[in-house]
Design goal:
10 helices, single chain, mainly alpha
């Protein structure tokens, strides 16, 4: 898999599960299981996203589920201009810092953080139902790109799995991400990494996701095994 365009990586990403919408369903359900029933104090715990509390990151995920609803109702004419891997190579949002600040302010505006949880539990299942009802052979448009429906769903799953790990960092007893979602996220990182790269044999899938997204720094041993490929990290921000 070539890390420059992801053309081969995309097939392996969406091919990891028979129905990508089911992976999205499981990914969102695990996030719900992580936050549902948390006390206000737990919703104000820090996450792996610097400066974001659990409630902040959950609101960011609500916005992602809302974007899914809009996107799945926005059919496009193919062909796609990006796929499940090359989507992540698009230039970053220059307003990202403002978005983060807006999310924090918006989350703080709720009377109680439980309000964000309720918003999530209403929105996430609706996004899954929309995904299940969308033609898997069709195309959709989002953020200035056209994607095949399975590829778009794979991007949602990847983000959900990574942010699930972000949310659960300081929450004892939080469930692990579901394996199909993890497989899609791992395949996404594989597509972004040079085919010649060899990851350390002692990495678990979760280690790969955390290190591949810069949540955990590479160790000296990691860098030695990866060689020049260590310069590619983080593969995904």
């Amino acid at each position: 898999m070539d890390g420059t365009d992801g053309s081969e990586g995309a097939g392996s990403v969406v091919g990891r599960v028979a129905e990508p919408w089911r992976a999205l369903e499981s990914a969102y359900a695990r996030i719900t299981a992580t936050v549902d029933g948390l006390a206000d104090a737990d919703l104000h715990r820090p996450t792996r996203c610097r400066g974001w509390l659990v409630v902040d990151l959950l609101l960011h995920l609500v916005l992602d589920a809302q974007r899914a609803l809009v996107t799945l109702a926005s059919p496009a004419v193919g062909p796609a201009d990006v796929n499940a891997v090359s989507y992540w190579l698009s230039p970053g949002d220059p307003e990202e810092g403002r978005h983060a600040a807006w999310v924090r302010r918006s989350a703080a505006a709720f009377d109680r953080p439980r309000g964000v949880v309720r918003l999530w539990t209403d929105t996430a299942p609706a996004a899954v139902r929309a995904a299940a009802a969308t033609d898997p052979l069709g195309y959709v448009s989002t953020q200035g790109h056209v994607l095949a429906v399975p590829d778009f769903l794979a991007t949602l799953v990847t983000e959900a799995v990574v942010h699930h790990l972000d949310l659960a960092v300081d929450l004892p007893g939080a469930p692990e991400p579901e394996r199909d979602g993890v497989a899609i996220a791992v395949a996404t990182l594989d597509g972004l990494l040079s085919a010649e790269a060899i990851c350390p044999a002692d990495w678990s899938d979760v280690d790969y996701l955390l290190k591949g997204t810069g949540r955990i720094p590479l160790t000296a041993h990691d860098r030695q095994v990866l060689g020049e490929a260590a310069g590619w990290f983080p593969l995904l921000g």
